[in-house]
Specification:
Blueprint: H1 8-44, E1 49-55, E2 61-67, H2 83-86, H3 89-97, H4 104-109, E3 114-116, E4 142-144, H5 157-169, H6 173-189, H7 204-208, H8 212-219
Parallel strand pairs: 3-4
Antiparallel strand pairs: 1-2
């Protein structure tokens, strides 16, 4: 995996932009977060936040925060029901408007994420990236990113990860501003949002895991 050149913006400016925009967003963001937290608490009960470990810059693991959008409903055998059956009405609203992402601002404040960068994916996907795709881990993961403004979950995994890698190699202030602006327009239009993404595309590990037939061909 090659490491992109360390420009001044990549080393210092990007973090300063994150903090400046966070400070500007606080007067509106904090009251909105409080109202949404109360709504989730009343509709879904505790916990209000969804927490999950994700790999960040350098593949270091951190805890991602989002508003909870699903119940813990289980089947007769105690197994969790499919996502589509656990997403609630308020969960659908939060996902369609991307308001479920607001708690990730805490991750940005803590320096675990950036406003712009490749989306932090699941830990179990780590063995399935190509060397070229691993360049995505040379930058902090983001709340929005180059792939998100080019189709989000409507993209194939190959296209999505290629866009992430391209972004990591071409980080600039102008590019980040462009992505933030396009994200704002996308959110206002409700464009390219999949409430239950795995109904549209398979998980990365499922898609790239060798099939039984392929394994037999390798060892035969």
């Amino acid at each position: 995996m090659k490491t992109p050149p360390a420009s001044l913006y990549r080393r210092r400016g990007k973090r300063l932009l994150d903090l400046a925009l966070l400070m500007l967003a606080l007067p509106v963001g904090l009251p909105a977060a409080a109202v949404l937290a109360l709504a989730v608490r009343l509709r879904l009960g505790p916990p209000v936040l969804f927490r999950q470990p994700r790999p960040g810059q350098g593949e270091r693991i951190f805890t991602l925060y989002k508003f909870r959008t699903m119940t813990d409903a289980r089947g007769p055998g105690g197994e969790l029901l499919p996502d589509a059956r656990r997403v609630t009405a308020i969960g659908q609203f939060l996902r369609k408007t991307s308001l479920d992402e607001i708690p990730e601002l805490l991750n940005v404040l803590r320096g675990e994420m950036s406003l712009v960068g490749p989306r932090p994916l699941l830990i179990r996907y780590l063995p399935y990236y190509s060397d070229a795709e691993r360049v995505r881990f040379t930058v902090r993961p983001g709340i929005t990113g180059w792939a998100q403004v080019h189709g989000r979950n409507n993209l194939s995994w190959d296209d999505r990860l290629a866009l992430d890698a391209w972004y990591a190699e071409h980080v600039t202030l102008a590019l980040d501003v462009k992505i933030l602006w396009r994200t704002l327009l996308q959110v206002l239009r409700g464009k390219d949002v999949q409430v239950v993404p795995n109904l549209v595309m398979a998980d990365l590990d499922e898609e790239r895991r060798p099939s039984t037939v392929e394994k037999w061909e390798v060892f035969s």
